[in-house]
Amino acid sequence: MADREKKGNAFTNNPIVKAIGTQKIVVVLVIIFLAIMFSVGSPAFRQYSTLVSIFDYSYYISFMAIGVTFCLITGGVDLSIGTGMICYALFGGHLITKVGMPVVVGMLAAIALGVLIGLLNALLVAVMDLPPFIATLGTMMITRGLGSLLTGAMSVTWPPAAAENGWFRSIFKLKMNGKMIPVGFILVLICVILMSIFLNKTRAGRYIIAIGSNKEATRLSGVNVVKYQSLAYLISGFFAGLAGIAYAATFQAIPPGTGAGLELDAIAGAIIGGTSMNGGVGTVTGTLLGVFVMSLLKTGFPYIGLQANWQQIFTGLVLVLAIFIDVLKNKKTA
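Structure tokens predicted for Autoinducer 2 import system permease protein LsrD (334 residues):
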């Protein structure tokens, strides 16, 4: 038993493991295991088109997950990002196709509406001190209805890639020599790097972490808790708007009244990546790795014959398992 403990300590105390983080290494191993499992289960999984599908799904989930990571670190949550993402995509698309606005205006409008809903969440959670779960559940319903209201309950299509104003799609997927290149991953990586620097290297980022660790102690130390807690929800709203653009670039049509449940994929990705539901702990890079686990599961299950209902069951089990591990970790450190 003592030998096993020594080996465990030797692993966790390894400088490389310390630098990267045990959780991230475990998640990378899970990604490798899943990739091998699906590849062995179905040779078709090894096709290039599968890789493109994995990236397609990961774009908009990654953006939502990056944003919600900040809310989770403060000890809160943002349940409005799934339906919000669809609402913002519908709003931007409506301005482009129905009103005749330029694509850039539609994209900026999608992000602006996301920030506006983020501001509403900040008002409810940080200023009015409502429970984040209840407050953002309310805004989830608001964005779901708002998307249908703005478009008259009609699906919206952003300009196709072949159209003159369809250039925005090439930000996420570029066609070269007959193959689709998932270039959007570069944008995701840029966002991950920038937000990692913001979270770990700036005063605002450190205050966001401090709020999640001990809100009252942070307030007593002179930090404007309302300001920095609000900032977390504004960041979440911004990235939900960006996710709306990524979603519009990935799919041909955007149906209103959808998106519920997608926020759970983003939250699961963040928790799998090491962000604690109790707040005070989390990394943006870990979140990205967690999202890739979710992307592999979503893309890989159909290749081994699992239908949509089973996929939802397994996704739910993964979320429960991730939360259970998080609870165990918190008990150990308590």
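The CA atoms of residues 298 and 316 lie 12 Å apart.
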